[in-house]
Design a protein that fits this description.
The relative contact order is 0.13. This protein has a domain of 91 residues. It is elongated, with a radius of gyration of 19 Å. 69% of the residues lie in helices and 0% in strands. The C terminus is likely disordered.
Amino acid sequence: MQTRASLPPECSIAVTSIRTKLVAVGRPIAGALLSLLAALVAVKIFSHSQFRVFVPLVFVAVLITLASRFGSIVSIVGAVLSAMVFAYFLFPPLFSLRVEDPAARENLSWMVLSAIALSYLLFPPGKNKHGSSS
């Protein structure tokens, strides 16, 4: 087995490039999976609560937190995935993406719209934490 020191210099650049690409792809996927997991936990906790209609509105805080860590695209993908999870598992009719309750349907819409707007306003894509372009 060759170590990094024994590889020619052009191979170390290729290894670094591949590693950078994996991190660039893996971070958003990890963020989207975290939002999906958080939505499933919220469904489990609030499935029999009288306040379940408000879960999507409170969940915006989770999505904005994920946007601060993983970027605004993760918040958008997470909002769509979470809306589907909430529609399927939280609101009647269960196991359907159709939502009968107009208030719940509106709150799902507000969750997606506010997660998109806030994540782009607070964490614009293409900017790192120091404000310069990446």
